[in-house]
Structure formats: structure tokens, C-alpha cells
Amino acid sequence: MGFSDAPTKSKEDRIKKFVYKGSCPCLSGEPYKACCKIYHDNPQSELSAEALARARYSALAMQKYEFIMETTHSSHPDYTTNDRGAWKQTITNNMKAIRFCGFNITESESLGEDQHAVSIVAAAAPLDSKVGKATSLISLAERSIYQREHGKWYYASATDLKQEVVENAITRL
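RE: above sequence
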């Protein structure tokens, strides 16, 4: 069964399945309220490119799609101001059948004063998979490019995209 074939569940059910016992979904080890929640509550916060990468992952995991939209650079192909409702619906449709279960920053480098690259690896499993049971897992890797404008970092693009399906993976989250 593919990820898109999983039964649809309500937002509340999905977020309940994605509980970190108070820890932040970005897996920093910090409580959510002291980590990414600060940025989710105020997308205009000034934060580093690495912190934005973590906050965007957490936002996807917690279905905070407005944050994804607010932190996307205007040069990104998905960015639009014309029909934000349709953009949000596209994100929702793309994420509805998965739950995020892993995140790691593998490299971070300055590309100049207003550009930064953050390489990440993330893992996602079908929403209906059981924690601790074998499932198919998607491992996603990318080199995210962040652009700073008026002192604030935005997600601009991704390079070196890699996606791999890992069969019989055991998830802990």
C-alpha cells in the first residue's frame, strides 16, 4: 500500500499519534514550548537558518502549514500570494497520509552573508503504521537553501534531493 492509500484521519487523531511526550518534534531534546513553538507562534521571529529548518520540520509534523507558507521565500516555485487557500490545501493533501518520525541536520554552511545551506535527513511513515512494528519508511534527504531578507531567513529552494523507501523499518516515534 502506498502512502496516499492510507485512510484519512482527522487532524486531532493525527496529532495525537504524533506525540513526543512534551518534547519538540524536531527531536532537539528540548520541550516543544521552549523550542519550535516560539517560532510557530511568531513566524516573523528572527532565527538562524538551522533553527528555521527545525521549525519547518516541526510545523509539517504538527500540521502548522501557515508557518510553512510564512517562511517560504518569494522566489520558491510554490510561493504565491494570489490563492493562499489553494496553496495550503496542496500542502495538506501532500501530507495527509504520513507521519514524520525522524529528523537530523547533517551539515550547515554559509554561502554568503544572506544565503545559507542546511542539509537534512527526515523520515516519514504511513499514518496508519504502528510504532514499534515493521513498516515501509521513506527517507528524505535534501540540501535546503535559505535566503535572508530584511534580517529574516526564508526557505528558498532544495538541491541534492534524495528519496529512498526502506522496507521493514521499525519506528520509535
